[in-house]
Input
Amino acid sequence: MDHFLINPYFLVGVYVASNVLALLSIFASVKKPQLARLFFLLLFGWACWINSSTALDAPWVYQDYADSSIPVYKRFILGAFEAIATPMVLSIAAAQGLIALSMILKGNLFRFGCWGGIVFCIAISPIGSYAAFPATLFMAVSLYLLQRKQGDLFIWGREGKVQKVKLAHF
Output
């Protein structure tokens, strides 16, 4: 990442933290699915904001991702992607926003969001260390487990039915 002057030790710390969080998200998907959903809501919401801001302000930054990418991705990033970086990244950011939104829903909308997240995580894994590989694959596993376990519930854990509450009379 030549465009940002960041200490390499900080980048290693972020890389390790990303992988630890991704591994913990697998555990959370099984044991604490609401926490995993909150994690993905925040993660994809943050990614939407960062990517849309960067695409509009400094789209050339995405050229740095070629440094750690597999050859076919590198050719695309340094070639065709350069001319369409802003609209492409804005489209990705919109999808990330929809994935984030889906984490509070249930049923097919939630499952579609999980599958969108799975496809996204697998698709960016060839970017390598700039995508914190293998964290993206861990997150894909987590999203898969989550959609299997939590599909029929909202993030708050109820089925969305209105419950009658008796009020005490004074």
